[in-house]
Specification:
With 354 residues, this protein is mainly alpha-helical. Helix content is 79%, strand content 0%. InterPro entries: Memb_transporter_dom (IPR049453).
Length: 354
């Protein structure tokens, strides 16, 4: 394996290579590549997001973060269908990331619920032909993040321009990396084959409904940062029932640990507050397990929120919304599956009687 190929690996295979190295020299090579890869990613994030913020404004930093995440994603993960359909799907994704948040933020909670359900459903169907790819979470995450930071006037115009440029960048990378793959599936087939009796489509609708309803409750009681509820629900609503239970066990505890550690660090070492963003990004790059990634992810989220709500108010809110979002999602998962089971059984009985 070349050094460049090593730099493309995720933490889990990296750690496996380090553990199974045949010599100290080989182990040092893997460790060096692992550290360098994470440093380069963080430096790229700082330059990319910082540069975008200088051009399009700090108020549009959420878009820069989303484009950065998608840019990293499309280098490795396609949509599972032929290239023209994939590029058109990517265009639709960026269109939803532009229009969906604008409509949602101008609506009352009831219309916002409908807009969220439609937007997230479309994002799931467009990007998740193969759930094992796991790429759909990035696009839904992007939608939730952007809608949490509304802008108007010239900043909105700059946001639309930034998203448009982001689509061009991601589209070019997507084409270069995936145009030689030969898939027979077209985007039209994805919608033509849609069925509530298909497990994948059932799960996609479950995610859209579960995330939207969880955030709807937050909107009704005027809770700030409802996107945190959405993130927690999105994390729990996995396609595999075993993974749902596993995420439920990990989501809230890891959020509690990460939030409290952030609070302690900020209280004891306030002078390093400005460095916690890059530090958390670097630490997440070394994590191979979900619970530690989620714990360190709290640092970046709380860094922004603490400047608005105060340190310990933000920590309390982060913990509370993660607990609510994850347990609401689990309860919705049980109810939804039971309803779908009854629905499928009724349909089966009807077909038998005919």
């Amino acid at each position: 394996m070349t050094f460049y190929q090593l730099l493309q690996l995720d933490p889990l295979p990296f750690k496996k290579l380090i553990q199974e190295a045949n010599s100290r020299q080989e182990k040092r090579r893997y460790i060096f590549a692992f550290i360098l890869k994470n440093i380069l990613v963080v430096l790229f994030a700082i330059v990319f997001i910082g540069g975008a913020n200088l051009i399009f404004g700090n108020e549009n930093s959420s878009v820069a973060v989303v484009v950065f995440c998608i840019l990293l994603m499309v280098r490795f993960v396609d949509f599972g269908y032929e290239i023209k359909s994939s590029l058109f799907s990517l265009f639709l994704v960026f269109f939803i990331l532009t229009v969906g948040p604008i409509l949602a933020n101008s609506a009352n909670p009831y219309w916002k619920l409908l807009i969220h359900m439609i937007s997230i459903s479309l994002l799931m169907v467009l990007t998740c032909l193969r759930p094992s790819y796991g790429n759909q979470s990035i696009y839904v995450f992007g939608y939730l993040l952007i809608q949490n930071y509304p802008v108007t006037g010239q900043l909105l115009q700059m946001r639309c321009l930034e998203i448009g440029i982001g689509f061009v960048l991601c589209g070019i990378i997507f084409y270069c990396k995936h145009h030689k793959k030969h898939y027979e599936t077209h985007l039209g087939n994805v919608f033509k084959n849609f069925s509530l009796f298909d497990p994948t489509y059932q799960w996609q609708i479950k995610v859209a409904l579960g995330v939207s309803l969880a955030m709807f409750i937050g909107d009704l009681v005027h809770v700030p940062r409802t996107m945190w509820i959405g993130f927690a629900a999105l994390a729990v609503l996995q396609i595999d029932p075993k993974s749902v239970k596993q995420r439920l066990k990990l989501r809230a505890p890891s959020a509690i640990v990460g939030s409290l550690v952030f609070g302690v660090i900020c209280t004891i070492f306030p002078q390093i507050l400005s460095m916690l963003g890059p530090i958390s990004g670097l630490l997440m790059g070394f994590c191979a397990t979900y619970q530690w990634k989620n714990a360190f992810n709290c640092f970046g989220a709380l860094l922004v929120a603490s400047s608005i709500f105060g340190l310990w108010n933000s920590i309390f809110l982060r913990i509370l919304l993660n607990i609510f979002g994850s347990y609401f999602a689990f309860g919705f998962h049980l109810l939804y599956d039971k309803i779908m089971m009854l629905f499928s059984q009724t349909r089966k009985n009807q077909l038998i009687s005919q």
